[in-house]
Amino acid sequence: MSASPTAEGVLRRLEWTVIRRLEGVLQGDYRTLFRGFGMDFADLHEYQAEDDVRYIDWNVTARLQVPHVREFQEDREVAAWFLADLSGSLEFGSQTVRKRMLAAELVAVLARLLTRHGNRVGAVLYRGTGLAAESAIPARAGRLHVLHLLDRMLNARTDKADPRAAHETDLTELLVRAQHAVKRRSVLFLISDFVSKPGWEQAVGRLARRHEVVAVRLCDPLERELPDLGMVVMQDAETGEQLFVDTHDRRFRRRFAEAAAKREAALRKALAEAGVDCLELSTAEPLDATLLRFARMRKQRSQLYGGATPAGTAAKTAAR
User: What is the average pLDDT across 110-122?
Assistant: First the structure.
């Protein structure tokens, strides 16, 4: 892949590889992946023994002197938003692709799958604390809109030239901005490596109470376990701080792995407490394989909640 890929080139490649395969495999499972939240009134029928009394239309019942219940039809239209963290730490990647490019490819695939079925997608891009904030990209449909969204992601820049200008990521800023930008109930994909200042957990919990949130965690194998490379210089992509370490030291590599495992456990616990599903996206794994795993996860979730995700269940309750 070239150093500066174009949105058109990236999307065309993905449409020929990942998207075609996913559409061939998903087919009937599409609605399991992405469900609408609205409930539209469809019809009335006389009350039967198996009907739920909560659906009785008392005005019609009083007029006809026979109990009638309302029927609802689920609104299949989906509005999806990508809350994309494009801060300094996403420039890392020990494989053939950086985490930042992986995030852009994920957005391209999901956005194209959604818009092909007439749904709308939008985005809120975060480049890092202290940098000029990207304005939210309104939710729209169509291939041209997907290209616009992808182009904005590919051309978002962090200030890497001067380490002194770098800033530590604060995901709370992204989540608060999303809270103001996304007005209607939607599916929100929070895409980040979650290298951030603490405190974002409460903000994602507030979003999850209104929207259906899926956390997409970007990761790289070297972030979990270091190989024996001898003496190396490690640099913090967020702050520019450098550290000279001896990776030949087994104790150092063990402490590194233990710290990484502890951080992962804390992240999973925080997302679980917020009621947010987590999809792990690794630079070492093909994108289509990861998304097929996501499809299976959503299908299991749908079956667990009787054909609806937790957010979908809440929406139905509100509609009644």
Answer: 89
